[in-house]
Amino acid sequence: xRPGKWARDRRGLFCSxxxxxxxxxxxxxxxxxxxxxxPLGYDGDDGLLGRRSxxxxxxxxxxxxxxxxxxxxxxxxxxxARGGLARVRAAPRPLAFLLVVAAIQxxxxxxxxxxxxxxxxxxxxxxxxxxxxxxEAPEQTGGSGANVSSxxxxxxxxxxxxxxxxxxxxxxGWTEAEERRWREVETxxxxxASANGxxxxxxxxxxxxxYALETIPYHLAPGGSFFNRFQMARLGSAAIYxxxxxxxxxxxxxxxxxxxxxxxxxxxxxxHPKLAMLGASVNADxxxxxxxxxxxxxxxxxxxxxxSVRRLAGAGIAAAASVLTHGRGLAILGALLVLLGIxxxxxxxxxxxxxxxxxxxxxxxxxxxxxxxLFTSGVSGGGxxxxxxxxxxxxxxxxxxxxxxxxxxxxxPKLQFMQPSIGVPDYGFREVYIQSFYGQxxxxxxxxxxxxxxxxxxxxxxxxxxLYTVAITQWGAVKRNWPIIAFLVLIGLALLTLxxxxxxxxxxxxxxxxxxxxxxxxxxxxxxxxxxxxxxxALPRRLGAFATGxxxxxxxxxxLTGLGMAFVRFYA
Amino acid sequence: MRNSLSSPRTLAALxxxxxxxxxxxxxxxxxxxxxxxxxxxxxxxxxxxxxxRVGLKPGSEGCLSDVAFDTxxxxxxxxxxxxxxxxxxxxxxxxxxxxxxxxxVEGGYxxxxxxRTAIDPPERSVLGTLCVRNRGKRQVVLLGTTDPRTxxxxxxxxxxxxxxxxxxxxRLLSTDSGTVLERAGEMVDRAxxxxxxxxxxxxxxxxxxxxxxxxxxxxxxxxxxSSFRDSD
Lengths: 572, 232
Fold this sequence. Notes:
The complex is a heterodimer. By secondary structure, chain A is an all-alpha fold. Chain A has a domain of about 120 residues. Chain A is built from 24 helices and no strands. Chain A starts with a helix and ends with a helix. By secondary structure, chain B is α+β, with helices and mostly antiparallel strands. The longest helix of chain B has 30 residues. At the A-B interface, helix 5, helix 7, helix 8, helix 10 and helix 11 of A face helix 2, strand 1, helix 4 and helix 5 of B.
């Protein structure tokens, strides 16, 4: 196979199509959506076999005005080191500063939130520890009855953090006496005390990728104390969080020409308070965010520049990472099919190349799925693949009409002919898309005041109206860019569909548990950032600049408020 | 001059500055300068799901084990739910290695009522027991909980030496209440507990807090402004 042929064949068409708008972009104003739709200028280097520099370095260097082009010219260690340094230097200044901001925030969250206070953190860490110590995942329903190791149980006991989970009136242990006693207990524990948390563990059927990655910082923890290993595991999540922000920059660079627009889109992700908290938590959801953000980036590359071996493999790898991370990650398979379909319609390659391209990306994703099947076949839990929400699909027959009624009432008021929705009354758009998407930190108990939720809800609804207005007023641009828009909308729908179906299934068994919370939407945060940036770009230039400042300030205020409230909640 | 004032960069700075100023005046300053209760420790929190009654007969003593008494634990707080009138007097005893403090609650309090009694805090923090003895001739019922996470937590409730399932909800308070700003040092010291190595050094936590309070807004705003400069 000549992997470059497809893209090369299409390059002429692509360039000629784009040259018109590209010209406008260079010479036109920077106010309207034309700027958004104008491509960045295809450099003729389509990332095929002859290309040496990495995708990331290339993208970063192309995106940075006046930045050094980072290309590795040789393969000697010195050259590689020089190349690495050049890549770091090539990072645009706004991105570098946003990464610094994100790093400070995420470290602060690791310090402010006591151990095991993030959602399901006890179970996630127990999984990491058991995998790191024994090479095996804990069992979901079996095991010896130890859902955490003896070491973890003692740490929880002496820091008194078990009763702390979700209970505002509780405080963690902080006295010297408790610390002293913990140190005595820790030194008296046997080696087996770290390795005996074999289950049952409620996340025991989660696929292993996140936990396997986390065993690296777990083993790298200096000194070997329990809380050192725990802190290092949190910092492992923090590294994943920072990588997701870097991918958001790459997405923005694919879509927006002005540097300020890329900065705004990335700032929306970097300053998102719930994402920062998740980045400071031991929880597989953060890897799901990275997998989806990377997938969206690669998908945009495919749609805008044409499929190549590397891009298709990238999409397959991101999809495999998603299914290997969490049951909710399965939605990416639908998103991958959507991507391949749109890429086909956009580029119309020969059938032979279509088959090869699809086989490559779907094959890699399928390989990930096969690994999960192999992995879970050796784990207890009734033989179902994936645990938790996904594992419940099919346990009870569901009624399509009831499902549609539930989804309607989740977003909109009940119509007269409808039965009351299944599940918790009044649990819908506001609770998921506003309250627990932006706020509800730690184990959901640290909440923004009501007026802040009200303002966020109004802003979110205004955003939807603004997007609609932009779409109507810029209909030509929408039509020209339908592949990008369709891709973003449909992958969003893929995840939302899975979330609603699994929530509905879960409520058939336990109506009191809606099993749908705001952090499940974070893999789509980059799409929200794109939407906000599109609206701001459509505003008159001066108003757009003012709004950009206001949005960045809002992100800062939400972030500082979240951190401050958590600090007061735990230590005042 | 007029051009520079109406440049996108200036307007973005204005938008950010205005947003931060409004937040400081309307939200941050009132929040940080509000007087707050100073919780010294919570051996057993109030019920979250499962409220339970823990009865103490005349002469009975209920004790919580493995309670941490910090050096500012000057008030013991618990809740009496019910009891026959007149409500009985109670004795509260806190003790640990090298530490013993006792206090009394006079009878005749209303029901239900949150009872607070002052004790002498220890000179250095200790782990010990906290006991409440009914000195009256009638039973008193204290607020307890059987929340699953609480009952498996460290303190264990015993009545007259016999372990019981519900734990009595108890808080220890300091007399040094104040604003978050006034007590920031104490809160940082608390946050540093159980943190490993560098992360447990109060100076490191202070550094991170300063970076959050000043560095995050400054770097985020600079990032945005530099993007306008480069775009110009």
